[in-house]
Write a structure and sequence with these properties.
Shape: elongated
Number of strands: 14
Largest sheet: 5 strands, parallel
């Protein structure tokens, strides 16, 4: 009886070619596993394709709700944004994919897990650290780093498949390298490989209109939140997944969440990509809009530090780490009173605030108003400024005495 390997299968050319390659070079029974995190039509026809290439079985595991609730929302609550712009669309999905791969490997009694991530990217690290954290006994086969892997282009992969009697609808023309899930879609390659070139948005965008092509009329939205999690859109109670899907549709129409970034990969190189994250951008902005009303100054200040560290940990494949878990515990505590309603409108790529309410708001009109109220006496500021500025005054006096 042959040993089994579980292949992280997307249905693309790389993982299609890996099926016969694994059988030829390792003599494994190949079990494909496609993890559905919101790829939609990309999943069509996968079973026939996988079996035509020699796989004995294909799992398609739908974990969209788990992805949204247990990976995306903790990232929203943390306000985690990598290098000012990137909302971690690929980085948040990879640890869950690794978890499901391990679950299927255990179910099948497999001895190894294989992935098709290249040796230049972050995904190889994310897959492998996830597997090591959850199943350190399993062997990991990284096809593109394997000495037995001799293919180095789409043309060579297609030729390899044809030589093994596999004729599939893949062309040799170049196209963007994309990764899609319910949170975002990423684009790399073609003109994006030259930072001096503007993105060809007419050719590139999948989820969105460009701001120039967005509707001339704005749209008004309202999101209700409970403990840092969205629970209703425009007054309608919906699941977290349903809210994100609707915001993706509306935000995409209005050109929200398109970014062009040169980021610093974990492996040391810079890479350029364009990301579409329409619904995610809205949720992040609305969540921060609510937090600024509720969190006290010290907590908000410290949470900004945590947000940066959280984002870097997730980007760098450390989801399954004690520090990420500890930071999540801190974030959870900060979200106890992040409840309320955020109102805003969308117009040609812009998110415009239209008011925020919360039963836990720390904003007090009696204090903040320019009018004198009972809780604040303007004269109290004099003593405060004297003490607060004492060190500044003393330093200036000392320096002046030395001139």
């Amino acid at each position: 009886m042959k040993e089994k390997v579980v292949l992280a299968y997307s249905g693309g050319l790389d993982t299609t070619a890996i099926i016969p390659w694994l059988k030829e070079n390792y003599d494994y029974e190949v079990i494909c596993c496609c993890i559905d995190v919101g790829q939609k039509e990309e999943l069509d026809g996968l079973e026939e394709r996988a079996k035509a290439c020699g796989a004995s079985k294909l799992y398609i595991e739908n974990v969209v709700d788990e992805y949204v609730e247990n990976y995306i929302m903790p990232t929203v609550q943390a306000d985690a944004v990598f290098e000012y712009k990137y909302l971690l669309g690929t980085a948040t999905a990879r640890p869950l994919i690794a978890k499901v791969l391990v679950d299927v490997a255990r179910k099948e009694g497999a001895v190894a897990i294989c992935h098709g991530a290249t040796g230049k990217g972050n995904d190889q690290i994310r897959f492998e650290l996830g597997i090591k954290a959850l199943a350190p006994d399993l062997k990991i086969i990284a096809a593109w780093r394997d000495p037995k892997w001799t293919m180095d282009s789409r043309e060579s992969e297609i030729e390899y498949c044809r030589a093994h009697g596999i004729n599939l609808p893949f062309s040799t023309d170049n196209s963007y390298s994309r990764d899609r899930n319910i949170w975002h879609i990423s684009h790399e390659g073609l003109e994006l490989e030259d930072p001096s070139c503007a993105p060809n948005y007419d050719h590139l965008l999948v989820l969105s209109n460009s701001p120039e092509k967005a509707p001339e009329e704005d749209v008004h939205l309202s999101i209700d939140w409970e403990k840092g999690v969205p629970v209703a859109l425009n007054g309608e109670k919906l699941s977290q997944r349903e809210i994100l899907e609707k915001l993706n549709e509306i935000g995409g129409q209005h050109g929200i969440g398109i970014i062009d970034i040169v980021e610093n990969r974990v492996v040391g190189m810079k890479s350029r990509g364009v990301y579409e994250t329409p619904g995610g951008t809205i949720l992040m902005e609305a969540h921060q809009q609510l937090e600024e009303l509720i969190l006290d100054r010290e907590t908000l200040k410290y949470k900004r530090l945590v947000s940066v560290e959280f984002a870097e940990l997730v980007y760098a494949a450390k989801w399954f780490s004690p520090l990420r878990e500890a930071l999540t515990a801190f974030v959870d505590k900060t979200q106890e009173y992040v409840t309320g309603t955020t109102n805003f409108r969308l117009y040609k790529g812009n998110i415009i605030k239209e008011g925020t309410t919360s039963p836990y708001s720390l904003y007090d009109e009696d204090i903040a108003s320019f009018k004198t109220g009972d809780l604040y006496d303007h004269h109290d500021a004099e003593g405060f400024i004297t003490l607060y500025g004492l060190s500044t005054k003393v330093r200036a006096m000392k320096l002046n005495n030395k001139k």
